[in-house]
Design goal:
The complex is a heterodimer of chains A (226) and B (447). Helix content of chain A is 40%, strand content 8%. Chain A is mainly α. Helices cover 36% and strands 19% of the residues of chain B. Chain B is built from 14 helices and 16 strands. Chain B is globular. The chains are: A mainly alpha (226), B alpha/beta (447). The interface between A and B is large, with 37 and 57 residues.
Chain lengths: 226, 447
C-alpha cells in the first residue's frame, strides 16, 4: 500500500515545517546568560518566581504573563476586510520568548497554537539549576522515560511520548539534567538509570529536543547525536 | 483516469458552485425567497470522488502557480490578498478536499514534490474538475475563499457560509471574550437568561454565546439565545449551523429586522449582541473585491455615516434589556464608538450605565458595550408597597426612601426598590437576597 510506505516520516516533515514559524529571541531579557551561541534564559537564584513554574501555569495564567500581539491590520479592518489576518504573536514578558502562529484558520485557534508553542520554547530555552549530588529524577521526567529505567516506579504510569502535552515538562527536566552534565549523554543516562542507547533513542524521538541537545553538544565541541 | 484540462473549463461544469452575480445582493432587501436550502460545506461532503496522486499533484502545481501569478497586484488594486495568503488558502482548500485519514501524508507529498507511487488513488470530497473551476473563481473572480469551501473557522467553531451570508470576521471573535470575561464572570446569573444576537448572519455569535452560557450556567438552568436576521439565506444557514452544533433547543433563529421578532422578550434579555452593518455607504465601492462584489450589501452598508443600524440598536436596546443587562455592538472603529457614546450621553441620559469601548486584536476601538451590573435580579413577590418594612429599620445604615410610588430601601450597600409587586435587588455584598426576601415578606404579612 503506497500510503503505508509514506508512513511516519512525512508526519515528521510536517512537524518540522510547523516549527519554521517558531521564533525564539530575546528583547532585552532581564537575565541573559549566553552560552556560546545558544540563547539561554536562566532564573536568578534570588528570584522566588522559579522558571520551572512557567510550564505548570494554567493557560490563562501563562497568558497573563504574555503580551499578545496580532499583526496590525492596515486600514479599517472588520467588515471591510477578507484577509484572514488571524496571526497571533505572544511575547512571554518574564523571559522575552516569542511564539507565533499563523497557519490556523481562526484567531482563537492561533492563540491556542501560539501558547502551546510558547510552552515548548520555554521547555527548550529556560534552564533550571540541577544539583548532581543526590540527583533523583523529578516525576515529570520519570513520565517520559522508557519502562526499563530503574528509576521508574510502579506509580510512574505508562511512558508518555512527544504528542502528549505533558511531554514538554519532562523534556524541560531532561534538558536541565543534560545541561548540568555538560551534554554528556552517558552521564545523564547513568543518573536516570538507563542505558546510553535508550536515552539517545528518547532524545531522537522529538525533533526539537534532539536539536536542543545537539546545539549544546556543538557548543561543547562534542559530536552531534544521530 | 480524469482528463485534466488546465484551461477552457467553464463554470457550468460545477453545478454545486453557482456563482451568484454580485448585483443580486443589491436587491436582497426586497427578495423574499422562502425556501433556502443551505449548501453543504466541502469538508462535510462524503469522500466519494477520487483522483490519482499525479493528477492531484498536477492540479496543485497549477493552482499554486495561479496564486503566485497574483503577486501583489490585488494589494495594489484594492488591498486584497497577496500570493502568500492565497497559497495559504490553497493549503486550507486541500485540507478540506482530502479525506482526513490520509490527509497529512498526501499534503506532505504535495509539498515535497515526491514522485513515488504516482498512480495511488486519493479520496476526495469533490471532483478535481470542480477544484479547477473553484480555484479559478477564487483568483479570477475574487470569490471569497470561505464561499469556495463553504465554511469559515471562527473561534473554535467551523461555520457554514455561502453567498448571501456575511463571512464572520476574526475581529468579531472578541465579542465572545466580552460575553465570557466581562459579562458572565462578573454577573454569572446572566448565564441563565435570554440573550439575543441581532443580524446573526451565519449564527456565529449566537452559537458561541450559547456554548459560553452552557459553560457558565449553574445546574440545569442554562440560558437561551434568540438569533434574528432579515435575510432568509442567513436564517437558513444560521439554523443549519445551530443544528450542526446540536443547539436547536438553546438557540432559536427568528426571521425579522433587529428587535421586531423579539416582542415577547422585551425587558427580559440578559444580553444583546450584534455585528450590524457599519460601513459608510460611500466606502462600499472601494472595498476589496472579495467583500464588495460578493458579500451581502445588506450586512455591510450602514448608511451615509455607517451608523444607521447602530443608532437603531442603541435606541431600542435599553427597553429590551432587563435591569443589569449587558450589550456589545461591533462598530467601524474609534470614530463611530465616540459618536455613539456622545449620542448616548446627549440623547439618552439615564438610560445606560457604564459605557465601555473595547479594542479589537489589531488595536482598533471596535466594540461599544455596557458593562453588566452584578447581582441585579428581579424577584416577583406579593408585597404591598406601603406595608413593607425592613427588619433592620432601627439600624442607622438602613434608609427608606419613597417617591413617585416607588419605595427604595437601602440596607448597607444594598438597594431594594419596590414597585408594584416587583422587587429589584442590587446585591453588592455577599448577603443573599434570597435570605432577606422571606423576612421582608413575613414582615409585610404581619403588618
Amino acid at each position: 500500500m503506497a500510503t503505508a510506505a509514506m508512513g511516519g516520516g512525512f508526519m515528521n516533515q510536517i512537524m518540522r515545517s510547523n516549527t519554521v514559524s517558531l521564533v525564539g529571541k530575546a528583547a532585552a531579557p532581564p537575565w541573559p546568560w549566553p552560552l556560546k551561541g545558544f540563547q539561554l534564559y536562566c532564573c536568578s537564584n534570588t528570584n522566588n518566581n522559579n522558571s520551572n513554574t512557567y510550564l505548570t501555569l494554567k493557560d490563562e495564567e501563562l497568558m497573563r504573563q504574555c503580551e499578545l500581539n496580532t499583526f496590525k491590520a492596515s486600514g479599517p479592518g472588520g467588515q471591510h476586510r477578507n484577509k484572514r489576518e488571524s496571526a497571533v504573536r505572544l511575547k512571554h514578558l518574564p523571559t522575552g520568548i516569542i511564539a507565533q502562529a499563523v497557519e490556523d484558520r481562526s484567531q482563537h485557534m492561533n492563540r491556542a497554537s501560539a501558547l502551546a508553542r510558547l510552552r515548548t520554547l520555554i521547555a527548550l530555552k529556560v534552564r533550571n539549576p540541577v544539583s548532581l549530588e543526590s540527583y533523583s529524577p523529578p516525576p515529570e521526567l520519570l513520565q517520559i522515560l522508557p519502562r526499563n529505567s530503574t528509576h521508574r516506579r510502579s506509580d510512574s504510569g505508562p511512558q508518555i511520548g512527544p504528542n502528549n502535552p505533558k511531554f514538554i515538562l519532562g523534556m524541560q527536566a531532561l534538558l536541565d539534567l543534560i545541561f548540568a552534565v555538560d551534554g554528556s549523554i552517558s552521564d545523564a543516562a547513568k543518573l536516570l538509570g538507563m542505558s546510553t542507547g535508550a536515552l539517545s533513542r528518547l532524545i531522537l524521538s522529538d525533533d526539537s529536543l534532539w536539536k536542543a541537545v545537539n546545539k549544546l553538544r556543538a557548543s561543547k565541541g562534542m559530536k552531534p547525536l544521530k | 483516469m480524469l482528463k485534466l484540462r488546465s484551461s477552457g473549463l467553464s463554470c457550468g461544469v460545477c453545478a454545486n458552485f453557482r456563482i451568484t452575480i454580485p448585483r443580486c445582493y443589491m436587491n436582497s432587501k426586497t427578495t423574499s425567497s422562502i425556501d433556502v436550502k443551505p449548501k453543504v460545506p466541502l469538508y462535510l461532503r462524503p469522500p466519494s470522488f477520487s483522483a490519482s496522486l499525479s493528477e492531484l499533484t498536477k492540479w496543485h502545481k497549477w493552482a499554486k502557480n495561479l496564486a503566485s501569478s497574483v503577486g501583489s497586484s490585488f494589494i495594489n488594486l484594492d488591498n486584497g490578498p497577496d500570493s502568500t495568503l492565497l497559497r495559504r488558502e490553497l493549503n486550507w482548500l486541500l485540507q478540506d478536499l482530502i479525506e482526513l485519514q490520509h490527509r497529512l501524508v498526501i499534503l506532505s507529498r504535495l509539498e515535497s514534490g515526491n514522485n513515488e507511487n504516482p498512480d495511488v488513488s486519493v479520496a476526495l470530497r469533490a471532483p478535481l474538475e470542480e477544484m479547477y473551476c473553484v480555484w479559478r473563481q477564487r483568483i479570477e473572480k475574487r470569490r471569497p475563499f470561505q464561499y469556495v469551501v463553504g465554511c469559515e473557522h471562527w473561534r473554535d467553531l467551523v461555520l457554514s457560509v455561502q453567498e448571501g451570508v456575511l463571512i464572520p470576521r476574526p475581529e468579531t471573535e472578541v465579542i465572545i471574550d466580552l460575553v465570557e470575561g466581562v459579562a458572565l464572570n462578573n454577573a454569572p446569573e446572566l448565564a441563565q437568561s435570554f440573550w439575543a444576537d441581532l443580524g446573526t448572519g451565519s449564527g456565529a455569535i449566537a452559537i458561541a454565546t450559547a456554548r459560553a452560557l452552557a459553560t457558565h450556567a449553574r445546574g440545569d438552568a442554562c440560558g437561551r439565545v434568540i438569533a434574528t436576521d432579515l435575510s432568509p439565506v442567513a436564517v437558513a444557514v444560521a439554523t443549519s449551523n445551530v443544528q450542526r452544533y446540536g443547539l436547536q433547543d438553546v438557540v432559536e433563529v427568528r426571521k425579522g429586522s433587529w428587535f421586531e421578532p423579539l416582542k415577547d422578550v422585551q425587558g427580559k434579555l440578559a444580553g444583546v449582541l450584534s455585528n450590524p452593518p457599519y460601513i459608510p455607504s460611500g466606502d462600499i465601492s472601494g472595498l476589496q473585491a472579495e467583500v464588495g462584489q460578493h458579500e451581502p450589501i445588506l450586512a455591510l452598508d450602514g448608511g451615509i455615516s455607517g451608523t444607521n443600524d447602530l443608532l437603531h440598536l442603541i435606541d431600542g436596546v435599553a427597553s429590551m434589556l432587563k435591569p443589569g443587562g449587558f450589550f456589545a455592538f461591533e462598530t467601524n472603529g474609534e470614530q463611530q464608538c465616540k459618536f455613539l457614546v456622545e449620542y448616548i450621553e446627549n440623547e439618552k441620559p439615564g438610560s445606560f450605565r457604564d459605557m465601555n469601548i473595547v479594542s479589537d486584536f489589531a488595536g482598533i476601538q471596535r466594540f461599544l458595550s455596557q458593562l453588566p451590573q452584578p447581582g441585579m435580579e428581579v424577584y416577583n413577590l406579593k408585597l404591598p408597597i406601603k406595608s413593607a418594612r425592613c427588619p433592620w429599620s432601627n439600624n442607622d445604615e438602613v434608609h427608606v426612601v419613597e417617591y413617585e410610588g416607588l419605595t427604595s430601601i437601602t440596607v448597607r450597600r444594598e438597594i431594594f426598590s419596590f414597585k408594584l409587586s416587583t422587587i429589584s435587588c442590587r446585591r453588592l455584598n455577599p448577603l443573599s437576597f434570597s435570605t432577606l426576601a422571606p423576612v421582608l415578606q413575613t414582615r409585610a404579612e404581619d403588618d
